[in-house]
């Protein structure tokens, strides 16, 4: 059985090469942008600060509460000897309420809005 030969015209070959070149170029332009966006991930918020008494001395063992206003769940942290606390990996799309309690006394409540553009918050909470 004789082998069938196919003749490609120069125009047909040029068209195929142009299409292949365009596809290769578009992949090179699109793929790096996708991978960069995937590596970044969502930006997370943090809240930290110090709990102090009425004379501004750090309060060891104070409980700091963070309430998610969407789910109504509450997280808590206990301050160390220096009175500091930290909440991390918080959603940007949620409103929060923050307050501290120690020995039956409570600080004023601080509010963090989802409309706030910052991602890091620092609050010193005074328990009177």
TrEMBL record:
Pfam families (alphabetical): CarboxypepD_reg
Signal peptide as annotated in the record: 1-37
Keyword NADP: no
Coiled-coil spans in chain: none
InterPro entries assigned to the protein according to its UniProt record, in alphabetical order: CarboxyPept-like_regulatory (IPR008969)
Tree of life domain: Bacteria
Annotated keywords: Signal
Keyword field contains Metal-binding: no
Name recorded for this polypeptide: Carboxypeptidase family protein
């Amino acid at each position: 059985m004789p082998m069938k030969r196919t003749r490609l015209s120069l125009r047909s070959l040029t068209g195929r090469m142009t299409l292949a070149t365009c596809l290769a170029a578009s992949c090179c332009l699109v793929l790096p942008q996708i991978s960069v966006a995937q590596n970044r991930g969502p930006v997370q918020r943090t809240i930290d600060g110090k709990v102090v008494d009425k004379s501004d001395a750090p309060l060891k063992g104070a409980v700091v509460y963070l309430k998610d206003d969407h789910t109504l769940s509450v997280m808590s942290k206990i301050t160390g000897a220096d009175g500091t606390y930290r909440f991390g990996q918080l959603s940007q799309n949620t409103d929060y309420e923050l307050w501290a309690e120690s020995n039956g006394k409570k600080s004023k409540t601080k509010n963090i809005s989802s409309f706030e553009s910052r991602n890091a918050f620092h609050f010193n909470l005074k328990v009177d």
